Amino acid sequence: MMESQAFQKIYTQLINMTKATVTLKAKGVGYDEMAMVHGRRAQVVKLMGDLVTLQVFAGTEGIPTNAEVTFLGRPPQLKVSEELGGRFFDAYGDPIDGGPQVEGEIRDIGSPSVNPVRRKQPSQLIATGIAGIDLNNSLVSGQKIPFFADPDQPYNQVMANVALRAKADKIILGGMGLTNDDYLFFKNVFQNAGELDRIVSFVNTTENPPVERLLVPDMALTAAEYFAVDKNESVLVLLTDMTLFADALSIVSNRMDQIPSKDSMPGSLYSDLARIYEKAVQFPSGGSITIIAVTTLSGGDITHAIPDNTGYITEGQLFLRRDTEIGKVIVDPFRSLSRLKQLVIGKQTRADHPQVMNAAIRLYADAANAKTKLENGFDLTDYDERTLAFAKAYSDKLLAIDVNVDTDTMLNISWELLGKHFTKAEVGIKQEFVDQYWVGE
Amino acid sequence: MERNNKTTGKVAGIVANLVIVEVDGPVAQNEICFIQHNEERLMAEVIKVVGVNAYVQVFESTRGVRIGSSVEFENHMLEVSLGPGILSRNYDGLQNDLDKMDGVFLKRGDYTDPLNRVDKWGFKPLAKVGDKVTAGDWLGEVMENSVPHKIMVPFKMDKRYELKSLAEAGDYTVDETIAVVVDDEGQEFPLTMVQKWPVKMAVRAYKDKPRPFKLLETGVRCIDTLNPITEGGTGFIPGPFGTGKTVLQHAISKQAEADVVIIAACGERANEVVEIFTEFPELDDPRTGRKLIERTTIIANTSNMPVAAREASVYTAMTLAEYYRSMGLKVLLMADSTSRWAQALREMSNRLEELPGPDAFPMDLSAVISNFYSRAGFVYLPNGSTGSITFIGTVSPAGGNLKEPVTEGTRKAARCFYGLSQARADSKRYPAIDPIDSYSKYLEYPEVMENLKKNVGEEWLADVIKAKDILLRGKEAMEQINILGDDGVPMAFHDRFWKSELIDFVILQQDAFDAIDASTPMERQKYMLSSVLGVADAEFKYKGFEDVSVFFKEVINIYKQMNYAEFESDDFKKHESALQELLKGRMN
Questions:
Q1: Contacts of B277 in chain A (CB under 8 A)
Q2: Which among A267, A313, A335 has CB closest to B347?
Q3: Domain B460-584 is in which class?
């Protein structure tokens, strides 16, 4: 989408330049407007009298002070139509798969928010087959939830699995700072699943300038809104990795001389992230946008500003952890949470679901205490021993990410494990469910 | 801010939502102005003036705005419209009626009327012609849903007036003149049911503001029993994400004994507001039998809505609360979350290039918070009636660290502290209010103690203190057990630990999603506490330390079944006698 309009005024005198911005004198420029600087894309970030400051996405390396600057008179845009399906684009919405430009209606990216009174309460369970998710942290359409994971964990693989099983009409991938290998992984998985037509990808790889990735979520969500609003489809948006997106924010704010707040992040980090995540919505007309994101952690630290602000915005988080007892990656039942699960569990799933879930996790917590005791060299009680045995089986049969069964089966397995290792009083579930489902004496 | 001609100006600079306007006349701090952008008028507020440049924060996105755009100043600060018809409305942070907006998406520059100008209200006069009246005096009343809504002398009228005429009982729209008052100089002022008030100023139409002394029941046991809040009291709930702040806030706003509930969803998740929109019209208010939504007003400025309006939203909510308090009503104001409001202040302070305080928050953050909390309170109105605003704010401490500026600033201002603990949340002990760290300063007020003795019971306070002691000693015992091992401590430590677990599981933990357990009336709380303390006082025979946990788990299990049963129902009594059986077999 290289633009050049003959009648536009060309400026040729830059006054100031930093690594990421250029400043020049110009008139009639709108805030947020796009421009071309020396053939590179830029956006207006500050207007002061007749001085215009532009953020050059690809950086200013090699730009001379007499570079040509033209203003495009519009904010960043994307052309939307059914033709988006099956295509791969860069952060500006230009094809990177060798295919032709997409024809369609032009939309500004970063559109306004949904009026909260026009939202519908999310109510549709998204089944993934992974018990660590479906049993303990059920996902609901219209939800926004990230994986909190260390960089060495298989979050992209789990996310791809979730996406393909989720039965969404469209899957939109927003890749930020993806390594080329990960980009090819997604491409292969989608291709092999024969699902390419319902997938649209916007990808910024580590080979592209980091500031460009600031456009990726808005591009992905503009496409998502097209399918969810205009076509009433259920759309699943995958954003990976939001930590790299936030890093790009801090680079820009640093170069704009803004005072950093916690962890060198801009003071507006919360609002910047919320603007993206809050695009997750259940529309009254039936369409929906669900966002599953990845926030990589550094050494599991969730108090860092990026995961911390994310946690306050998203409707829960999914933690992956390697369980050394069983040698598999599991969905951590303590630190993971789906805030919207209350809307579906026991309603779209079996009535015993909430109580079984809570009882099993409480007993799993007792096992963690027993483990601490063991590590500190104390004798274990019979109860401690039983919790440890339970925890191991629970991890292996339910929490491991390679589990793929339906929710009823997950509940039945839970009852089996509870009955095998505990008494009814120890489990402490409402009598009516115990009467109905208890396995054993 | 009296001016004959409107000041105008031109846009001279833009950085995100901070716009610099070159003005041609006087402007006031916090004055409202509108920036003309194509067909749209974008509302903004003056936050700093340097020479002829007014720095304004725009309540909307500034995308596309150009240098030179014209600006018109409005001669007043950010105001709300006060009158019948506020209850059960959903407003944004600037009091725009969200339901009146067209389309699914919010449109920039779309400002809607907060009141209904067409419907008629059944007016009943309360004052008499010839009465001497001042601001806040009641002239008449209309029934708003089931709430008696007083029509008052506007708060802005700062003199003494004589009531010259008053409408007869009948149906009127909010804009019809219902009274005429005359000042000492003979100037007449026609009054309607509507008045305006600037949100950043406190309404002071009351005679006296004593210390709060009456318990406000919330139905949440670990608040009412352990650390009660009072009518007109202030409290705050800090907690890392995922510890249940919002669930707790919703529970309090559903159950609390208030006439009017105002919820400010300030910079939080939109789906949480949708939950209120969806549930409240369905839920019954146990006190009136009508729907909860009828006594509730929601100010929704969710996290993706413009950040400057987020800052305004808490003030808008507080002003509405003050308006209803002046009618002699018990108002509960909830703000979720005040941290988002503080972050909005930080974003603007940053754009203004002010020297930052801790964590880049503005230096006066703590003062701003204290000033806001001070607007809550219990008041005596000039006519002798009482009204109150009980304010509970949540705080979202960055990284779960309670030493961060917003939590610290709030701790100085609020009298109740309900700290949510990550450890409790992780082990699903909800509500995750930490029983040891949390406090209610009101328990130290002699007038509150007196009131509790009279209304709950002579022994109540002693019982509460005892329960707290058991919890503390249980925690100490647990620490010893963890250090020395199960068999390295005397049996008494296990007994002590499990007695504290008993209180934890039966009194503190409460299932907010269970129809019966969600809300516990005071009478039932009293019964359960004294029952549990009875068990804690008793001495039991144990076969060994493992036996202690086995026994108490059985006891707890029965108590939990009691909590799930209707109070004093057959089911409840059946579990209770099973409990008695179990205890008897074990007594020393």
A1: 116-117, 121
A2: A267
A3: mainly alpha
Question: A4 pLDDT exceeds 60?
Answer: no
Q: Find, in chain A, the residue whose alpha carbon is nearest to that of B99.
A: A117
Confidence band of A178 (pLDDT split at 50, 70, 90): very high
- Spell out which residues of chain B touch residue A115, defining contact as CB-CB under 8 Å: 98, 101, 103-106
The pLDDT assigned to A3 comes to 47
pLDDT of residue A252: 85
Quick one: pLDDT band at residue B64, thresholds 50, 70, 90? very high
- Measured CA to CA, the distance from residue A373 to residue A376 in angstroms comes to 5
Instruction: Calculate the alpha carbon distances from B567 to A136, A261, B286, B298, B571 in Å.
Output: 31, 51, 16, 32, 9
Q: State the pLDDT at residue A20.
A: 86
Cβ within 8 Å, pair B426-A334? yes
A410 and A376, same structural domain?
Answer: yes
Between B166 and B146, the higher pLDDT residue: B166
Q: How is chain B split into domains, by residue range?
A: 8-77, 121-193, 221-446, 460-584
DSSP A188-214: HHHHHTT-GGGEEEEEEETTS-GGGGG
Over residues B326-354, mean pLDDT: 91
Cross-chain Cβ contact A365/B101 below 8 Å: no
Amino acid at A268: S
Q: Once rounded to an integer, what is the mean pLDDT over residues A47-62? A: 94
Smallest Cβ–Cβ distance between B106 and the set A113, A262, A274 belongs to A113
| Residue A224 counted as domain residue | yes
Whether residues A285 and A405 share a domain: the answer is no
A233 and A257 both lie in a single domain: yes
Q: In this model, does residue A7 exceed pLDDT 70?
A: no
Is B356 in contact with A315 (Cβ distance < 8 A)?
A: no
Residue A175's φ and ψ, nearest 5 degrees, are: -100, 125
In 3D space, the residue among A334, A239, A217, A254 whose CA is nearest the CA of residue A296 turns out to be A239
| Inter-residue contact B140 to B166 (CB < 8 Å) | yes
Q: Which residues of B touch A31 (CB under 8 A)?
A: 14, 62-66
CA-to-CA distance for B245 and B250, rounded, in angstroms? 9
Q: What b/e readout covers B180-193, taking b as 16+ CB neighbours within 10 angstroms?
A: bbeeeeeeebebbb
* Count of domains observed in chain A: 3
Q: What is the pLDDT of residues A129-175, one digit of tens each?
A: 999 999 999 999 999 999 999 999 999 999 999 888 888 999 999 99
Q: Give, in order, the Cα–Cα distances in Å from B55 to each of A4, A62, B82, B483.
A: 36, 36, 29, 60
- Residues from chain B contacting residue A252 (CB–CB below 8 Å): none
* B15:A46 CB<8 A: yes
Whether pLDDT at A244 is above 70: yes
Q: What is the DSSP letter of A95?
A: B
Quick check: A283 and B104 CB within 8 A?
A: yes
Q: In chain B, what residues touch A258 (CB-CB under 8 Å)? A: 350
Average pLDDT over residues B167-174: 97
pLDDT beyond 90 at A267 = no
State the Cα–Cα distance between residues A360 and A429, nearest whole angstrom.
10
pLDDT in tens, B354-372: 888 888 899 999 999 999 9
pLDDT confidence band for A310 (50 / 70 / 90):
very high
* Residue to test with chain B: of A113, A257, A337, A423, most B Cβ within 10 A: A113
H helix count then E strand count, chain A: 12, 20
Query: Quick one: DSSP state of residue A398?
Result: I
Tokens coding B578:
């099973």
CB contact under 8 A, B556 and A428: yes
CATH of B8-77, one of 2.60.120.280, 3.20.20.80, 2.40.10.170, 2.60.40.3880: 2.40.10.170
pLDDT at position B401, please?
86
